[in-house]
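Input record, target 12 of the design panel.
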């Protein structure tokens, strides 16, 4: 049976926190998440770290002072190391194809393979060299990257390996934004790049042609994050200094989804989405709050060490010095089968299989009671196996589906392969067989090479 002790209920949903790995870098004194720029590739991909020059870092005797970009698996095992001599790094990021993107203050974009091989170097605008502009903020998304200069101009590239840099519309800003994020062109309503800049009490949306003030009054916003499907924007507003507010609004700003008073006087270190229906706020060394669609919430603590949240399409990876954990909504198929007292046909099919294994005649009675629902029960057991982490439970769910299939005219069972092999500590790819299956299918071959 799956481990339901890690489940926590929030309304009609369940969320779980699961430890995936004991980190390979736990004894490496040169690894400090709190003093580093961190970026993690999607779909359980590799992690890149580099010392953040803007932060004070403790140096141990014998440590090299040279800047090095280190690449690890999600389990903290080092893959590659890049000696860095090309200027101050402003942002790290990963493309969907596992290309490491490094952006410098001088306006250069570098692209490296997961093994540390340089693939590209490009200057994002001649103004960096001719007018002495510098990069103050940058964002990397699955396909490209965008930078904001100290003159409040935006420059972008839509494909990090081959795309040509171009300038976006003049922002019209007179002061630096407090936060910046990007709506991926693949999910934006316009199907083009949209950059969101939080300035004063409002938000500007900038694309190639226009810069539009959304005329908001509930800012200033200190953090923003776009949902994986591009439909919603989460903002942390510090308008009330005694209690910051998490505000969730549609990406076109036409519909308020929810507001949640956090009680926090300082903005979170990170604001990320957990799937498309929950937002996670993380205060370093303090607490982490997950807020659901109806304002319901769960609180977590990740210990005294620094940690870093990695948003996935349906979950959040939590990287820390000692462990890698996964925070996720329990899939409905698993909840239907394993929640206490469930009478879902899939739960009854699973129970019937357990009775069959125990050679108990009650198995036949249970199967007869759900005969009309057997096809759905079989499919749900297969779906649950795709999400399950324990290979023994995966096998049992598939056996229950096979058992149920014997009692019905059923020829369209879903194909399912175990996700256990890439999840093991050596590979360090904590893939989810459900919501991010399409993403995992594209990147797993390159991740495993």
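The sequence produced for target 12 reads:
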């Amino acid at each position: 049976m799956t481990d339901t002790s890690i489940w926590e209920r929030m309304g009609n949903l369940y969320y779980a926190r699961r430890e995936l790995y004991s980190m390979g870098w736990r004894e490496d004194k040169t690894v400090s998440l709190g003093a580093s720029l961190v970026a993690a590739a999607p779909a359980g991909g590799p992690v890149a770290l580099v010392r953040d020059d803007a932060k004070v870092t403790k140096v141990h005797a014998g440590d090299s002072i040279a800047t090095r970009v280190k690449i690890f698996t999600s389990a903290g095992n080092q893959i590659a190391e890049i000696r860095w001599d090309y200027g101050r790094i402003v942002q790290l990021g990963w493309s969907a194809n596992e290309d490491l993107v490094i952006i410098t203050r001088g306006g250069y974009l570098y692209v490296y393979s997961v093994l540390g091989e340089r693939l590209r170097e490009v200057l994002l605008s001649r103004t960096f060299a001719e007018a002495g502009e510098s990069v103050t903020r940058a964002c990397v998304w699955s396909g490209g990257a965008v930078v904001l200069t100290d003159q409040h101009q935006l420059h972008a590239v839509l494909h990090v390996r081959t795309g040509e840099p171009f300038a976006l519309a003049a922002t019209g800003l007179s002061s630096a934004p407090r936060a910046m994020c990007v709506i991926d062109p693949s999910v934006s309503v316009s199907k083009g790049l949209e950059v969101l800049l939080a300035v004063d009490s409002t938000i500007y949306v900038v694309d190639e042609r226009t810069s539009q003030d959304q005329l908001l009054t509930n800012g200033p916003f200190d953090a923003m994050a776009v949902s994986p499907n591009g439909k919603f924007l989460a903002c942390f507003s510090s308008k009330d200094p005694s209690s910051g507010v998490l505000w969730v609004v549609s990406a076109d700003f036409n519909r308020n989804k929810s507001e949640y008073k956090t009680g926090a006087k300082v903005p979170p270190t990170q604001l990320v989405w957990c799937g498309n229906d929950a937002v996670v706020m993380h205060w370093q060394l303090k607490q982490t709050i997950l807020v659901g669609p109806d304002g319901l919430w769960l609180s977590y603590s990740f210990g005294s060490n620094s940690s870093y949240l990695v948003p996935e399409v349906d979950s959040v990876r939590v990287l820390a010095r000692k462990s890698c954990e996964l925070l996720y909504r329990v899939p409905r198929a698993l909840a239907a089968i394993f929640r206490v007292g469930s009478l879902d046909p899939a739960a009854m099919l699973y129970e019937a299989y357990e009775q069959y294994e125990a050679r108990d005649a009650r198995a036949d009675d249970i199967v007869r009671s759900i005969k009309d629902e057997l096809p759905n029960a079989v499919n749900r057991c297969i779906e649950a196996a795709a999400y399950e982490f324990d290979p023994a439970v995966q096998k049992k769910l598939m056996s229950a589906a096979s058992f149920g299939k014997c009692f019905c005219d059923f020829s369209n069972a879903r194909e399912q392969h175990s996700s256990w092999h890439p999840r093991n500590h050596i590979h360090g790819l904590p893939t989810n067989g459900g919501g991010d299956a399409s993403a995992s299918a594209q990147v797993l071959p390159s991740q495993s090479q």
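Residues 391-405 form the longest helix (15 residues).
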